[in-house]
Amino acid sequence: MTPREALKRYFGYDSFRPGQEEIVSALLAGRDALAIMPTGAGKSLCYQVPALLLPGLTLVISPLISLMQDQVKGLNAAGIHAAFINSSLTETQIARALDLAAEGSYKLVYVAPERLESPVFRSFAAGADISMVTVDEAHCISQWGQDFRPSYLKILDFIDSLPRRPIVSAFTATATREVKDDIVCTLRLHDPKVLVTGFDRPNLYFQVERTRRKDDFVIQYLRDHPGESGIIYCATRKNVDKLQELLTKYGFAATKYHAGLSAEARRKNQNDFIYDTAPVIVATNAFGMGIDKSNVRFVLHYNMPQSMENYYQEAGRAGRDGLPSQCVLLFSAQDVIINKFLLDKKDFAEMDDEEADLLRQRDLQRLQTMERYCQTTECLRNYILAYFGEHPTAPCGNCGSCNNDFDEVDMTDAAKWMINC
Ligand code: ADP
Ligand code: MG
Description:
ATP-binding; DNA-binding; 13 strands; DNA helicase RecQ; alpha/beta; isomerase; DNA binding
């Protein structure tokens, strides 16, 4: 079977998207690969198609239980033998899954990075026919990234422990130099095929709404977009609770998601959103990684995020189906102060002073770049693309700045707010 045949047969697609085929070919030729593609570009297929065509098993390392479960559900529905092994399973279930995997029953097995250290898993891996190890959300390996996970640092040790070195592939949406270099070094990729696809998402309309009356804006926005599905990100759980309550009071079918809710409530609310029972979800940035909902028409940011990486990743959850969608960031002078406050509170407990200082400086720089995005009168898309290292050309004509949708923010508000604190 050729990659294209596999794409059609298992996933029902006629053609690869930009970049996908190059990665698939490199992996099938036995080469390591690192693919940096924006959220929604279709990274999963880049390793799933080779996984089907390579002889043995592909081990996918993935940071989130919900993400693994969704992927495996999707693969199984497509008739592909795949399983996940994580802490949602009992010891007995894990043993059974590993037995099946050892017998060659699965083409893909998803695991959390912590699992790689377990002796039971190590002894399974030593005897299994592992063709490829795939590291999804690979930016988690980088201390420069905001999603750093120490357990990702153990992946190399695991790969080294295998009797035969598998093909290693890594995927992320974070395009900064430091993160890219960190991934290549820390996973010790061998002469990898590195692919960075364009970060532009032409179907997304970017806008910054400079306003203090954010609640009013959101209510009006939802009135203007009846029945559409969207995500509203807030900086804090408290804001999520307040805004969701307000929207419900106004009669909108809005649910919510943050880490303070029980696992059961999170699952229910997430499903309500995915199946459009509640087409709008108000959430902290705990929501979204691995959520593959294609018809999200808008992503509103009630508060300014802490970095352009965060912003573009979250905003990028709009319009995965390629249809026109809006990404609106609500900005007021208070946002700057709230974010500085959150940064000050950030805990660098496990680091020495020098390291903590460095990270603090980086965080501050990121925040300033984000702030400039909120203040600029230049083309917003060009601002984003330039940040991610692309060389943009003419203004895009499809963003708030290009449409001259600009008003001033009164910075004296910020000063007042500080005095009141
Ligand atoms: P990423 O991991 O890069 O954020 P996903 O792998 O979750 O993105 O894919 C996003 C969406 O794009 C999914 O709904 C997927 O089915 C779809 N997709 C991926 N590749 C193709 C393709 N070649 N043709 C059509 N749709 C695709
Ligand atoms: Mg993905």
